[in-house]
Specification:
Elements: H1 2-8, E1 22-27, E2 33-38, E3 42-47, E4 52-58, E5 65-70, E6 78-83, E7 87-93, E8 99-106
Antiparallel strand pairs: 1-2, 2-3, 3-4, 5-6, 6-7, 7-8
InterPro entries: DCAF8, WD40/YVTN_repeat-like_dom_sf, WD40_repeat_dom_sf, WD40_rpt
Keywords: Repeat, WD repeat
WD repeats: 15-56
Length: 109
């Protein structure tokens, strides 16, 4: 039964903007925005239905982004990321498409 469902899946839309391997994708709480993070250290917020980029920014990480989550109850303005550099970072969407990132925590290994 599960494989029947998998075999019926098809590509809905190709979201092609990252310049490296995409390691994470996640929806916002409403399900209308998709966030992705990549080896290119960029984070992209997509309108996944149209394929349009809503926001693209450098994460502040010095290595591959492995997780990116839009925080609930922030009107999609708060994104937390972690990466192979051992950092956990917070990105705050500001007015006019600007983004401010800051280090929340760092670990080794």
């Amino acid at each position: 039964m599960f494989w029947d469902l998998v075999l019926r899946l098809d590509v809905y839309k190709k979201l092609d903007k990252h310049r490296g391997c995409v390691n994470t994708v996640s929806f916002n709480s409403d399900g209308d925005i998709l966030v992705s993070g990549s080896n290119d250290k960029m984070v992209i917020l997509w309108d996944w239905q149209t394929g349009n980029v809503k926001l693209l920014f450098h994460s502040g990480h010095s290595n591959n982004v492995f997780e990116a989550k839009i925080m609930p109850y922030t009107d999609d303005h708060s994104i937390v990321t972690c990466a192979a550099d051992g950092q956990v970072r917070h990105a705050q969407r500001l007015e006019r498409g600007r983004v401010k990132t800051k280090l929340l925590a760092k670990h080794q290994e």
